[in-house]
Amino acid sequence: MNEDLIFHFDVDGSDFTSAGQASVQLKKNLRQLGISPDIIRRVSIAMYEGEINMVIHANGGEADVAVTETDITITLRDKGPGIKDIDLAMQEGFSTATDNIRSLGFGAGMGLPNMKRYSDSMEIDSVVGEGTVITMKINL
Amino acid sequence: MTVSEFANKNGLTCLCLPEGEREIEGAYVGDLLSFVMGKAQSGDAWVTIMSNQNVLAVAALTDVACVIFAEGVKPDDALTQTAKEKGINLLACDKDAYGICLMLSACL
User: Fold this and answer.
1) Helices and strands in chain B: count of H runs, count of E runs
2) Of A36, A40, B5, B35, which has the maximum CB count within 10 A?
3) β-sheet bridge partners, residue A122
4) Predicted local distance difference test score (pLDDT) of residue B87
C-alpha cells in the first residue's frame, strides 16, 4: 500500500517580503513528482493566495499538502482573527487589507475567489477570535 | 525571440539575465498580484511597476519568461540578487507599459 506524501510548511507571518516561499517550494516538489504543469499551476495559485492571506491577516500559520494517487489536498491553518462573514469575504473585490498592503499589489479582493476557482472543492472553517482552517482539494 | 535578444534589440536595461535564452511567447501587464497570478501564462513577458520581493514569488509561480519594470522603476539590489539566484530574468525600461507592449508586439 502506498503511503500518502505530505509536505509541511510553516508560513512566517512576520516577514511580508518573503511571503510566497512555501508556494515556490511546493511547486518544485510537485514538479519533481512529475505532476502535470496545469495541475501544478492551479495548486501553486491556490497555495500562494492562501499563504498571502495568512501573512496579511493572521500573522502566519501552517500549511499541509497531501498528495495521493487521486488528488492533492491543501490544508491551511492559522490562529488569526477569523472571518466574520464568509459569504462577503468570498465576493470578488471585497478586501479588509490595509492601504499599505494594497500599495504592495495585494488586497484586490481576489484571494479567496482565486482559491475557490483553482481548486475542485474548498471548505472554510473559521471561528472569530480563534482562527481559520481552509481545505482545498485539486483532483489529479 | 529570446529575452536576451529582445533586450538588446530594444535597448532595455538588463538587471539580471540568468536565463536569457528563454523564449518570450506572450505578454501580460498588471500590478495587482492576484490578477497576475491568475492570468499571466508561462513564457509571458510580465510588464509591471511593482518592484517588491513578492514580484519574484509571482514570477516564479507563473513561470513567466521575464519581468519588465516599466516607467523607470528600479528594484533594489537585494531583489536583483534574489532573482539571479532563482533564475528569474529582470529587465527595466523608462517607457510606460503601453510603450513596452508596442515593442513586445513587434517581436512576437
Assistant:
1) 5, 5
2) A40
3) A136
4) 95
Q: Cβ contact (<8 Å) for B37 and A114? A: yes
* Parent domain of A95: 5-139
Closest CA–CA distance from residue B9 to any residue of chain A (Å): 30
Which candidate in B28, B29, B34, B44 is best for mutational testing of the A interface (most A CBs within 10 A)? B34
- What total of structural domains would you count in chain A? 1
Give the E-state strand segments of B2-106 in sequence order.
Answer: 13-16, 26-29, 44-48, 66-69, 90-92
Instruction: Please provide the DSSP assignment of B17-37 as one string.
Output: -TTTTPBP-EEEE-S-HHHHH
Domains of chain B: 3-107 (3.40.1390.20)
* pLDDT tens-digit readout, A29-38: 999 999 999 9
Q: Measured between CB atoms, which of B34, B54, B57 is closest to A108? A: B34
Confidence bin at A2 (pLDDT 50/70/90): low
B48-96 tens-digit pLDDT: 999 998 999 999 999 999 999 999 999 999 999 999 999 999 999 999 9
Rounded to two decimals, the ipTM of the complex is: 0.81
